[in-house]
Design goal:
By secondary structure, the chain is mainly alpha-helical. Helices cover 69% and strands 2% of the residues. It contains 8 helices and 2 strands. Strands 1-2 form a two-stranded antiparallel ribbon. Strand 1 and strand 2 form a beta hairpin.
């Protein structure tokens, strides 16, 4: 008596077979537009910026005065560049060590799905979806030394109004506060998922 062994179809592990599946066809359909958009709006401008950075160029016409890495040397020797690096690192540190822990703490407090917590999520997430221009206008009115909220608080305490955005120290603190306010809700929502 002979036993016939059934022939088993082996699953193909080839890339071509994977691409011909329905998921693979979707990838093949969506990949070219994504690559085209990435190339047009990220890769080409990046290469153009690298090319133009090697020239002394006023922004108009074709760059002709090749200076090599002299532009980079000039930037690295400028004090304002290092001041901007310092300011960026301070904002980064505030975001990492103040904003993220506060967002995590609040996300843990409003984790349960209740109507009140849903309202809190909305209130804290709203600044993130607010346009940058609108945020800037709101905070410029808050920090206005003549008629802003900050001025009213200083006046109510019997102090002279402070023009926050006109003072370097106060302006940097104000901008850092706005950054924390703007992105706090986003991090809270990420932690709360």
């Amino acid at each position: 008596m002979s036993h016939a062994t059934p022939i088993r179809m082996q699953k193909s592990n080839s890339i071509f077979a994977d691409l011909m599946s329905s998921k693979g066809q979707a990838v093949l359909l969506m990949l070219p537009p994504a690559v085209l958009l990435f190339t047009l709006f990220v890769a080409l401008p990046l290469f153009d910026a690298a090319y133009y950075s090697l020239f002394k160029w006023n922004g108009y016409g074709t760059p002709t005065d090749f200076v090599g890495v002299d532009n980079f040397r000039q930037v690295l020797n400028h004090g304002i560049f290092w001041q901007s690096v310092r300011n960026t690192l301070i904002v980064l540190a505030v975001s990492l060590f103040i904003q993220l822990p506060l967002a995590l703490g609040l996300a843990l407090m409003i984790y349960e799905k209740t109507p009140a917590n849903t309202l809190f999520r909305l209130v804290f997430f709203l600044p993130y979806i607010l346009a940058e221009i609108a945020s800037g206008l709101i905070w410029s009115f808050v920090f206005d030394g003549n008629s802003g909220v900050a001025s009213a608080v200083f006046k109510s305490l019997g102090m002279a109004p402070v023009f926050i955005l006109a003072d370097r120290t106060w302006a940097f603190l104000a901008i850092t506060l706005v950054v924390v306010w703007k992105y706090f809700g986003f991090h809270m929502m990420i932690f709360g998922l």
